[in-house]
Amino acid sequence: MAVLGRAIREQPRIFAVAVAGSVLFGLMVVASAFVVGAVVGEVVVPAVETGSVAVGALALAAAALLGLSVLRVVGIFGRRLGAGYMQFRLQAAYRRRVTRRYLELPLSWHHRNATGTLLSNANSDVEAAWQPIAPLPFAVGTLVMLVGAVASLFAVDWALALVGLAVFPALFALNVAYSRRMAPRQARAQRLRAEVSGIAHESFDGALVVKTMGREAQETARFAARAGQLRDALISVGRLRGIFDPMLETLPSLGTLAVLVVGAYRLRQGAIEVSELVSVAFLFTVLAFPVRAIGWVLAELPRSVAGWDRIRRVLDATGEMPYGDTRLDQAVTEPATLTFADVGFAYEPAEAHLPGTQVLGEVSFTVPAGKTVALVGPTGAGKSTVTALAVRLVDPLSGTVSIDGVDVRDLAADVLADTVALVAQVPFVFDDTVRANIALDRPGIDDEAVWAALRLAEADGFVAALPDGLDTMVGERGTSLSGGQRQRLTLARALAGRPRLLVLDDATSAVDPRVEAAILAGLRSSADGGPGASILVVAYRRATIALADEVIYLEQGRVVARGTHTTLLATVPGYADLVTAYEQAEVDHDRKDTYDEVTPLASGLEVDR
Amino acid sequence: MSTSSAPTSSGQRQRRVESVTVDQAPEQAESTWRTLRRGLALSPELRVGLAGTLGLALVYMVGRVAVPVAVQQGIDRGIVGGLDLDALFTVVSVTAAVLVVTTTCGYLMMRRLFTVSETALAGVRIRAFRHVHDLSMLHQQSERRGSLVSRVTSDVDQITQFLQWGGVILLVNLGQLAVTTAVMLAYSWQLTLVVYAAFGPAVLVIRLLQRRLAAAYGVVRQRTGALLAAVGESVVGAPVIRAYGIAGRTARRLDDAIDGQRRAQQKAIRISILGSSVGELAAGLALAGVVVLGVLLGADRTLSIGEITAFLFLVTLFIQPVQIATEVLNEAQNAIAGWRRVLDVLDVDPDVADPGTQGRELPGGPLDIRFDGVRFAYPGGPTVLHDVSLEIPAKSRVAVVGETGSGKTTFAKLVTRLMDPSAGAVLLSGVPLTDVRFDSLRSRVVMVPQDGFLFDATVADNVRFARPELTDEQLAAAFTELGLADWLDGLPAGLHTGVGERGEALSVGERQLVALARAYVADPDLLVLDEATSAVDPATEVRLQRTLDAVTRGRTTLAIAHRLSTAQNADEVIVVDRGRIVQRGSHDELLREPDSVYALLYASWLEQTR
Prior knowledge:
A: Rossmann fold; elongated; disordered C terminus; B: alpha/beta; disordered N terminus
């Protein structure tokens, strides 16, 4: 109900139009029953009985029927147009609000919510919440129609009115019983539909794995089990419909029959006339349909409430990361200084599907202006988390991250975006042109700047070879490009903004060594000459690390050592193992070690095949 | 439908449906019957008891006209010309009995209809699901993400929802039209003519509007798709949007998509209202016409008062079906379009097909590989492999190296029969791959792709994907054998750590470790690694390499590598350049060829790592 109230508050005028239209329609329906009755009584009966036609009365009757139908059309127009526009406007307004929240809420919130859920929040949940709004004016009109009908019944005859009072409430009660029973079944079917869809999504996303491991049959069995449950749920919905639908249809017919019997008695008593009897019978026939339609509205309401609850969850979600309003000196184009002071980070316990342990603890280091610092550590050490903190994708649990001495939490959003740029490990490309992907509508990035950035990222070659150059659409999630090409595009995107701090998270992993070397050379020269940037780079490759002025060695979320590459190589065994792994491998290779043959899972365990 | 053109043509068809225009509507109507025929052929169970269901439906519809007939009989026999309550009672009680029978028939009809149709459609859904997995990798990847999912979800949902809701209404209402017409004709052919004269033009206008409406709904679907794409981008791209401070730009794009959808919806509803208004006007016209002509005929004593009254009731019975049927026809068109898309997917022959029971088993023991004049080109694309012939002996460990775009990954896809060569043949231990049964092939040959997709389950469940019978102890043992026990212990819940959607709770490198373990426990005779450890740190990679070398002794391994450390340890290195094999030999031999492709790659590698 609160949902409906909100709808009326948000679109009062259009709601009024819809309700007015609907009320007009309802009254005209009741009126038409009486006109039909009057026509039978005043025109048809005399004509048949006398054998002569009263032309004036006949013309009047025809005109009245036509006039009523025109008024009904006006009513329909007002109601449906008003209701439709109201529904669509509300949906659009709430889609806007929900997606705004997506943009405002922090990444940690995004991590807690599956992509599919967020998609359906903005799409089907909004739709479900407001869909019952469309028939709402219709329901109001029907209510008016019913009240009018019962009132006019009493005006005609109390006995016939009593029949009406028995039939319409019974119809309504039957409807409510129907909706009550239907709602849980519909909800179950809806839930199973989502689950079936979830399995299909995952299974098709992982189609390559399914295929290469020959697990098609098992995946189909997994899908079939849930699809079978959905089938059973839908059959149960259908059976309920089978019980109630015919009953709902028969009830008004029985009412009409009752009217005939009661009406005949009243006729004999001389309490009513034939025309009135016909009017009442006609009324029962035309009212049956709208009363049933109210049932459909009621049946939809639980869906609306469920959808609304899910939307509220997004709109009421807290934890957005407010930006400060501190501005750095605009004139400064010098490289920025990045400082981590005792930074700790852990995923919130609510992020249940993520490991709950602390990811980073007491991480302190500085990237001095114009310097390059390499972040090195084994898989899972927390390097990507450091890069996310550096550009404030997430906020630390403890300690501070600051740029040029200002806590990043105090910086204005645009200042932060202008100052730092992150190139992520997995490149993300928008479904747009190459130009738009690099410029991102940021001011001051013209085609020349785009080409310059592409050159620096060694991406100018393949972009120039694309059919439409900068105007080439790169397709959904960049699927038309190779992994290496996507990485170079995102690198160019970062460079185009001329950031004062560049954060690279293993951003050249899909690029061949030769291409990578060229890119790195370009980056280094841009750091040397021109305005340049400070660079924080996550790297495994020695060439990349060798560029760094300092190396931070991370293990299990803690800074284990820092210093120049040479120092760390000499003093930190873990670092040396990691960085010289390939050389070690080569030494081993040269020694031609021999290995014992091992069968998987043969270590003391019997495996049935 | 030809196999080779299938992927693109079905994609185009989908777009065509979305942008259906007025001119294309007749063509669509034509193929509706074809779709129904194809659908029935595919689900013969839909025909079972169809006659019975239709019979029940017919009886059910008779109930709809019972009341007007009762009114006529009641008025003519019991009311006009002297009240006869006994006659009235007879009419009423007979009608009531008829209503009880028809209501029961209605229940039985729906019960049968829903049970049969839902069972049949669940079958179609499951078959389509399996079929999508049977399609070739190229076909799967050529479809827009999510469009294959729609085939087994929203498309089928559309059909079942239509059947549950509109289908019965359509069936009953069309029947009602027929029965009502019959009763009207029985009373008076002249008045029936009046009713048809009033509704005829209206139906024509509504049909015309219908086409415009179908086009308008097509636009709505298109806009909804665009909206979903925009929302998806804003959700998946959240880190980029945040890092580049482009929330404003993204919000504008979202608003455009949202408003585009709203405008399309409003346009559609305007046309729809026009349709129902025409219907309503026709009803008023019919009512007025019936009264005028009815009175004239009544004055001639051609019609009784009861018959004229019954006619007025019948006209209302006529309006409802016409209006509802036109509304429901839209849904019917959507449902049929959905059905057609599902059938289209099922009609695509997998172009890389399992020879099934006619196929052969791979011979036991380690496998050798032979390429016989293999050429490969992507459909409509340039040739990526030119006339490659080579032999790789059993038990050897071979690395394939080359620059990006050299065609090296194609080797992995051909050897695992994810794709078939355009010319030539790939043979394993002398058996052409196209003759090998998939269950034999997939259990003996396993590939670890670069993007090791993980399911939203625990590490353990992901690793035992191919062999669900493995116990936790066996899985833990496998990680120990791979030298990954320490990493596993570091996870919050060890083997039972959830990996999140697509494995996103793990880092990219960690996902690759799980994918590798998954392939390892599958215990294949030929292991194909397609840059399987590209995101793993060097120390772990080298350690993995070493353990893999040990555990794959006695099997054949083919590694597609972009880190040359893999090549150094291989028995043989194959160097690919622009779709041709340019060098073969051990690492040391290849290095002795000065200025060769391999020497250049290695020089650059050294520069990177030293």
